[in-house]
From TrEMBL:
<dbReference type="Pfam" id="PF00441">
    <property type="entry name" value="Acyl-CoA_dh_1"/>
</dbReference>
<protein>
    <submittedName>
        <fullName>Acyl-CoA dehydrogenase</fullName>
    </submittedName>
</protein>
<dbReference type="GO" id="GO:0003995">
    <property type="term" value="F:acyl-CoA dehydrogenase activity"/>
</dbReference>
<dbReference type="InterPro" id="IPR046373">
    <property type="entry name" value="Acyl-CoA_Oxase/DH_mid-dom_sf"/>
</dbReference>
<dbReference type="InterPro" id="IPR009075">
    <property type="entry name" value="AcylCo_DH/oxidase_C"/>
</dbReference>
<keyword id="KW-0285">Flavoprotein</keyword>
<dbReference type="InterPro" id="IPR009100">
    <property type="entry name" value="AcylCoA_DH/oxidase_NM_dom_sf"/>
</dbReference>
<dbReference type="InterPro" id="IPR036250">
    <property type="entry name" value="AcylCo_DH-like_C"/>
</dbReference>
<dbReference type="InterPro" id="IPR037069">
    <property type="entry name" value="AcylCoA_DH/ox_N_sf"/>
</dbReference>
<feature type="domain" description="Acyl-CoA dehydrogenase/oxidase C-terminal">
    <location>
        <begin position="254"/>
        <end position="376"/>
    </location>
</feature>
<keyword id="KW-0274">FAD</keyword>
<comment type="similarity">
    <text>Belongs to the acyl-CoA dehydrogenase family.</text>
</comment>
<keyword id="KW-0560">Oxidoreductase</keyword>
<dbReference type="GO" id="GO:0050660">
    <property type="term" value="F:flavin adenine dinucleotide binding"/>
</dbReference>
Amino acid sequence: MPETPPAAPVSVPTSDQNEPLLSDQILAGIRSRAAGYDQANTFFSDDLEELVAAGYLRALVPTRFGGLGHTLAQTARAQTRLAAYAPATALGVNMHLIWTGVAASLYAQGDHSLDFLLEEAGRGEIFAFGVSEPGNDLVLFGSTTDAIPQPDGGYRFTGTKVFTSLSPVWTRLGTLGLDSSDPDDPAIVWAFLDRADAGIHSKDDWDTLGMRASQSQSTVLNGALARPDRVVRRLPVGPNGDPLVAGIFANFEILLSAVYTGIGQRALELAVAGAHRRTSRRNDGRTHAQDPVARWRVGELVIAMDGIYPQIDALARAVDERSFTVGPAWFAQLSGLKYRATQNAKFVVDTAVQVAGGSAFNASSELARLYRDVLAGFFHPSDADSAHATAAASALGPIDLRTS
């Protein structure tokens, strides 16, 4: 029997060569801990410590605020690379990177409403997303959380947020709520909360099928206070093209797509290793790497992965270069990217399991963990229904709700 080769690395296409944000040594350590975090259902504490020390959480923060000043395209590639080593770690860090990406984008446009976020992220504060709510499929355009205006211009928030990644460690929470104090002018309020506020409680309720190390626990807000200088928007209920909303949508969809593409990248590597490892008595003891069916399957995976990298890169560069127009077509491209990337990753993992064989069915195998992790992609916005509705609206226009 031939010696089993290591998983073959699959290079991510890139149009400019930059030093990687994370060394091979750091990534190897992160991979070595991933299975243990998953099995114990614990947060990636040691990973985070190394990522912070490497400056990774400051990747998108402009240099004048103490960051590395990387572009969204560079950071998306880095997130794909990190996710190939530890998906849950990459997903958790993603939420902080999204906020810094939004703030950097606004800053580049001359909008200084989130400069405080860049300053604090540059000093080491960790930002989390307090947006998703049980039963709220309006996501950015509506809220079941009450935002109660205060005399000084601040707001108190009361409601429950779910899927709050980085729950054990975040220090700042970006959130939204509904100000219905004026029934004729309800508004969505965006603001940032401080972890030290007594009105914030994280539930210990993260016991999921996959992405376990992200520890994306529910967060209960009970009159949590956002100071006036931390209230950044008061917007109409419903879809709008405000730069904050557009920035959130773009950074969220692109960086999320990058994470799940990393899962697909690793699954392909493991499929290649599995094809070299498995032998067939039916084929005179040759490895499955020589089997036409296995080769066709691996070829399908290579084609699938080659198609998604340039899509992520193109949209990330459009954000970096401001070469897009906010509107139905842009939102359709972003939601379509997220849908394709997560569906693509699921297909690649499914097929990689077939190529690797029965060993992948073992609960301790890396492919089994990837199989569980990749399922989380279905639950992030934009989901399949939303992505298709957005794409249809960009081509057909909005649904006519008038009655005849």
